[in-house]
Specification:
Rossmann fold; seven-stranded mixed β-sheet; 20 helices; 38% helix; 18% strand; binds iron/sulfur cluster
């Protein structure tokens, strides 16, 4: 039975303590979503994990797509067949899918369609903190922002209603705090999805030829105008506090929660307009709010999007009202809105003192935990072998072009094998670019999931341009970083309902690359040899370092009743520290000058026992139990 089963079986009226993403999954089930698609990415991943496990039980068709663009196209097709579709992704995933978004806002939808973007202010697990609310303005589509798990569930259903009302895709935006906060959620009835899709020809065209698109744009503007005429008061928007306060605050999403914390702590009673729909701005509601207050503070994450709209409305009709927020420097332009920073930003205006401030959350500070590859991670062995090969070949100043995945941790000591890392699939494209302008050797690292996501076109480009480069594909069977979701290469045994998995080596060979070798990174000798051969080659070479993710291996071995550990034989250990300093498995440490292996952390991979890591053969296997 799935751990998420209760999200399926929970009865109307029942209260559950849910993660924001769990509430969203339940919201999709209550809404009767027929087709859900995604490419996993933190902070949205749990929604996919849940629907992958229990979606079928709700009558839903769920798909882990190869990337976000394909996920959105797939969801759009379901919509055109008249079905309710839901596509979700992390914020940078919407960049990949934006080509689709910019066209489907014009064509419009048939069945209701919601696009969830999970943004990551302060970049807890992302390369930027782009505010995807811009996409709603850019594409002229409605934007919904919940502030807690209960709202996440309810607002998602309203998003589908708005989509249905105007045949437009609707963007549903969470942030890390909303997706990952927990709260009490009252369940409603689930809806059995309609799966009988049919694309009806005739009537409206969905062909984006210029002659059609010209008219689509006018329709789109009219649709947004009609949605803007609704105030959604009490449904998505609400105001609270003293209607006669001189100062009013306009806010949305997580910024509302932080605003509430600060106001409650200092017992400030001003009127707060909490918006659940921020594109189009509810103009009538905003005008009424401006008419009641002389000074407005806008609190939002991350960019001043609401503030720009409020300033425009104020300029047009309320010149006496002063607007404060990010644009005048009252609130910092970067990062999420924390209670401490907001307290400082608002203290003077709201008349409270922060000099003797007590922290909002009291407790012990957590010790710093720098990111590190897991004990037994096959990527560590690959990085070790590549570094060794570079040294043995006396390569001068190679360029390491890295990519998005667990293996980006190769950036850190002792490997330092990431000079550039941008976005999904960039390692090969950027690597190819370097081959044109420098004679430095190029080594691109890319994971299996990233290879399928967007690495393949870049590799085609590398071959097409006869680039001299080594591409190391680190294939650990799953999309590991986001929670080990399946990708097209994941073995059939690890997937639900899959009949066939795709071979990375076959794909690479089909591109005309002859220098291809698949190795087991736990075998350092073999991996080192393949990397050295690849680096000597004149064209594109590919080494596929194939070994299951250490966590998958743990799970498998536990099921098989196997336990393997290694230990250091003190008498044989020379204290050269090669293992600790150059291999750096977290299970290895130095105590009283001697190296030891923590048996709890040791994953039993045995790589440290190989002579490239321990030349004194001081590391031995402890036990193998069946
Ligand atoms: S065998 Fe060695 S490298 Fe592998 S997990 Fe144990 S200590 Fe780490
Ligand atoms: S590499 Fe071997 S000999 Fe050197 S410190 Fe580690 S265990 Fe001891």
């Amino acid at each position: 039975m799935s751990a998420y089963e209760s999200l399926l079986t929970g009865k109307p009226g029942e209260n559950m303590f849910l993660l924001g993403n769990e509430a969203i999954a339940r919201g999709a089930i209550e809404a009767g979503v027929a087709v859900a698609t995604t490419y996993p990415g933190t902070p949205s991943s749990e929604v996919g994990d849940i629907l992958y496990e229990i979606g079928a039980g709700a009558g839903m068709k769920f798909e882990f797509s190869v990337n976000e663009k394909v996920a959105m196209e797939s969801a759009f097709a379901a919509s055109l067949a008249g079905l309710k579709s839901f596509v979700f992704m992390k914020h940078v995933g919407l960049n990949v899918a934006s080509d689709v978004l910019m066209s489907i806002s014009y064509t419009g939808t048939r069945g209701p369609m919601v696009i969830m973007t999970a943004d990551d202010p302060s970049m807890f697990s992302s390369q930027n903190e782009q505010d995807n609310r811009h996409y709603a303005h850019f594409a002229h589509v409605p934007l919904i922002e919940p502030s807690n798990p209960q709202e996440a569930k309810e607002f998602l259903k309203v998003a589908f209603e708005i989509s249905e009302m105007e045949s437009l895709p609707v963007i549903f935006r969470t942030t890390t705090r909303i997706s990952h906060m927990r709260g009490i959620v009252t369940l409603s009835a689930v809806t059995t999805p309609n799966l009988k899709g049919r694309f009806k020809k005739g009537g409206r065209s969905f062909v984006s030829l210029p002659s059609n698109a010209y008219g689509f744009k006018d329709e789109l503007v009219a649709k947004m105008g009609r949605i803007g005429a609704h105030d959604f008061q009490g449904i998505l928007n609400r105001s609270e506090g003293d209607h006669e306060s001189r100062i009013g605050i306009i806010t949305s999403g997580e910024a509302y929660n932080v605003t509430r914390d600060v106001l409650d702590k200092h017992q400030i009673n001003v009127e707060v307009l909490k918006l659940g729909i921020t594109n189009p701005m509810p103009e009538k509601t905003t005008r009424e709010f401006l008419s009641r207050h002389g000074k407005i503070i806008v609190v939002e994450e991350v960019d001043p999007i609401i503030e720009s709209d409020v300033r425009a409305i104020a300029d047009a009709g309320f010149p006496e009202v002063t607007i404060h927020g990010k644009m005048d420097g009252t609130i910092p332009m970067s990062h999420e809105t924390s209670p401490n920073t907001l307290e400082e930003s608002l203290a003077e205006m709201l008349g409270f003192n922060v000099a003797d401030r007590k922290p909002f959350i009291q407790g012990n500070e957590l010790p710093p935990r720098p990111p590190v590859l897991c004990a037994g991670c096959p990527h560590r062995a690959t990085y070790f072998a590549v570094k060794r090969a570079v040294k043995m070949l006396k390569l001068n100043d190679p360029i390491y072009s890295s990519d998005i995945g667990c293996y980006s941790l190769g950036n850190y000591e002792p490997f330092s094998e990431a000079d550039i890392m941008l976005e999904m699939g960039s390692s090969v494209g950027v690597g190819t670019g370097f081959t044109r302008v420098t004679d430095q050797r190029i080594i691109s690292f890319i994971g299996d999931s990233t290879f399928f996501h967007s690495g393949i076109p870049a590799l085609v480009n590398a071959v097409n341009n006869n680039s001299r480069m080594l591409v190391v594909i680190m294939d650990n069977d799953v999309t590991a970083m986001t929670g080990r979701q399946p990708n097209p290469g994941t073995p059939v045994s690890l997937t639900a309902g899959r009949k066939k998995n795709q071979s990375i080596e076959n794909i690479v060979r089909s591109l005309g690359i002859d220098s291809v070798k698949t190795v087991d990174p736990y075998n350092l000798k073999e991996t080192l040899g393949a990397v050295m051969d690849g680096l000597k080659n004149e064209g594109v070479s590919v080494v596929i370092a194939k070994r299951e993710c250490a966590i998958l291996r743990d799970n498998r071995m536990r099921k098989e009743g196997l336990e393997v550990k290694y230990h250091v034989v003190t008498e044989k250990c020379s204290s050269c520290y090669n293992c600790v300093e150059n291999f750096a498995c977290p299970a290895l440490s130095v105590s009283n000058g001697k190296v030891t292996i923590d048996p709890v952390l040791c994953d039993g991979c045995g790589v440290c026992a190989q002579p490239y890591v321990c030349p004194f053969k001081a590391i031995e296997v402890t036990s193998i139990e069946n």
